[in-house]
Amino acid sequence: MKDSLQAGVRYTHTFVVSAAKTVPALYPESDEFTAMPEVFATGFLVGFLEWACILAIHPHLDWPREQTVGTHIDVSHLAATPPGLTVTATVELVAVEGRKLTFDVEAHDGVEVISRGRHERYVIDRGRFDAKVAEKRPA
């Protein structure tokens, strides 16, 4: 981690919601999901918020050796967003405790706030992480 990885790092990221990021697309194997409204899925919203956090800190890591993984997410999903709208995530790194990073996150769809909350990530050494995961793989 570089010395520049400190609380106060902010980032804004935008993305146009497509049909591929709606509830029916989240689990196309599920009849229940495919029958649901075509709006931005909470699962994809979480990924979008994570993406914004990753982009925020990318310049402050020794990439690609150092990366981050999400370990906790506590966000609301306040409003439905149809395909075609642009969502904007605004994230701020509010705490750095060793390898643990805590972010305040918010998303807006151009009409209203659609999400607010907190997200935690941990800085990993990619080689060590991959080695540990390899030990868990079935033979």
Q: Can you tell me about this structure?
A:
With 139 residues, the protein is of the alpha+beta class. It has one domain: Thiol Ester Dehydrase, Chain A. 25% of the residues lie in helices and 37% in strands. A 5-stranded antiparallel sheet has the order 1-3-4-5-2. The mean pLDDT is 97. InterPro entries: FlK, FlK-like_dom, HotDog_dom_sf. This is Thioesterase family protein.
What is this structure's SSE topology?
Layout: E1 10-16, H1 23-26, H2 31-34, H3 42-57, E2 66-75, E3 86-97, E4 100-108, E5 113-125, H4 126-136
Antiparallel strand pairs: 1-3, 2-5, 3-4, 4-5
Sum up the structure in keywords:
139 residues, alpha+beta, Thiol Ester Dehydrase, Chain A, 5-stranded antiparallel sheet, 4 helices, 5 strands, 25% helix, FlK-like_dom, Thioesterase family protein, FlK, HotDog_dom_sf
